[in-house]
Amino acid sequence: MIGNLLQGSVFFLVLIGLAIPLGWYIKEILQGNIPKYMRFLQPVERFFYRIIGPASRHTMKAKQYLVSILMVSLFSLLALLLILMTQGWLPLNGNGAENLSFPLAVNIAVSFITNTNWQAYAGEEMLSNFSQIFGLTVQNFLSAAIGIAVLSVLIRGLIQRQQKFIGNFWQDIVRSLVYLLLPLATIVAILLMSQGVVQTFSSGFNYEGLNGESLWLALGTVASQVAIKQLGTNGGGFYGANSAYPFENPNLLTNFIENISILLIPMALIFAFGFWVKEWQQGRTIFIVSLSFILLAVVGVLISETYGPQFADVLGQANLEGKEMRFGVGWSSIWAVSTTAAANGSVNAMMDSFTPFGGLIPMFLMQLGEIIFGGAGSGLYGMLAFILLAVFVAGLLVGRTPEYLGKKIEVFDMKMASLVILTPLLLTLFGGMLLVLHPDIFSWLKNSGPHAFTEVLYNATSLANNNGSAFSGMTADTTFLNLLGSGMMLLSRFMPMAAILFLGQNLSQKKIAAVSEGTLSTTNATFVVMLMIVIVVIGALSFLPAMALGPIAEFFTN
């Protein structure tokens, strides 16, 4: 246990050391201040603007910005759907992948454009290399860039004074792609390749097994896809076993690099926010809250997996069921917390094999709305919605008009913030209800009792919060779940985005009030505690009854 805590301490120290300078860099590029050492990429940026045309030169209002997002997402959905349903006729299909059915293709396409990467398929068996490269990997980049772009709108809204325009969507995503995601993904991919992660255009080859049978070894452009799936908080693996598979994650060093990548951009965006609003203490508040939650979660999962029920004891150690021996309990626990906190969804262990509380804690992190570091961009704008709620509640308590960064928080602002907070929450409960009530639910589950309910609740939570990880004891590739999940992922992605855009525009049109003695401080310890209480209370009140039927009941019955 002590060794695992020391590993975790080193991990978070390295992560913070990388995130601070990256945060400054992100702030600079999103403001259009390209550092000298990256200006060699400016011809690439200008090339994209020439392709986009005049739309890349004009500032936008919220409605125009939203329409641009929806049009790009719709085009991406149709293009990816076409690729998946015709992949059997396309090149780079050495493994003989067949065209996918419409319900499954829709689910995969929606999953990747919404930054969810829910996988109801085994990639190495059901997808061609063409689909992996030109379909899934492209969307990994694009969906992450859109999340960062929406966040930049909200930050501009908080710092601008009486302005109607909130930026240009095309400039925001191009800068995120050219100067942030592509360079970082290239670096990470090279590091992964150096450690044995596969990168080839070959689809694989046949080999003879130990019993003389003919077997297929699937290969492909794994390193490049793994790099962006982690950095962009996407999570969809090239292989069905995801980052538990040796060709995606062969050793402790690749595990460390990939785990760092999951949290790097979400953490850096918090520092970027503090630098951008020119009050680093505001970023510090969010960082302290997020770090406190994730550290408590890591310790909680470690304790549960190390000192869990006796039935979980394997090889005289802690609960190693469903975990890779090369990672053990420590790195598996850190990964499980990271991937559910950061809306990533990738796994290096079987979540279904975790102890009851070991599975409850990652699920609760998702149910908070993926705000603890969260997805690329989406995590921080979700946290800012909670901050506005906490500020509003505090204003009611002391009888003053609530303000944040000098902007008065009024009725419209709270309506938009409430949409951001409540949309994934309601979708989780509604989606879970529909799954439980379906007449075929028992045929989709491999377990019974509280654990089966936990599987249903976890998967509904993952879909409704654009995470993508799953408890694998439930059949995912059914027409009902494919279509229900698609609807949940779309609503959970685009309703909060729309709310954030209109919230950003409304804030941008306001004056900035001078700080007075009655101004509520949002940087002191009192506000940090209050914000944590607001987050926990909303999550606890919403999901405690469901948790009592699932992991809590399972804990007390074992």
Description:
The protein has 558 residues and is mainly alpha-helical. The protein has one domain. The protein has helices spanning 2-30, 42-52, 62-86, 102-113, 123-126, 129-159, 169-194, 222-231, 252-276, 280-306, 328-341, 356-367, 378-398, 411-437, 441-444, 449-464, 479-508, 525-549, 551-557, and strands at 204-208, 214-218, 403-404, 407-408. Mean pLDDT is 91; it is low at 311-315.
Spans of at least 5 consecutive residues whose pLDDT stays below 50 are 311-315
Summed up, the domain count is 1
Encode the helix/strand succession as letters: HHHHHHHEEHHHHHHEEHHHHHH
* Helicity level: 55-70%
Radius of gyration: 23 Å
* Tally of helical segments: 19
For the largest beta-sheet, the strand count, sense and barrel status come to: 2 strands, antiparallel
Q: How many β-strand runs?
A: 4
Task: Give me the oligomer status.
Answer: single chain
Which class of secondary structure composition applies to the elements?
mainly alpha
Beta-strand portion reads under 5%
Distance between the termini: 23 Å
Q: Looking at the structure, what is the overall shape?
A: globular
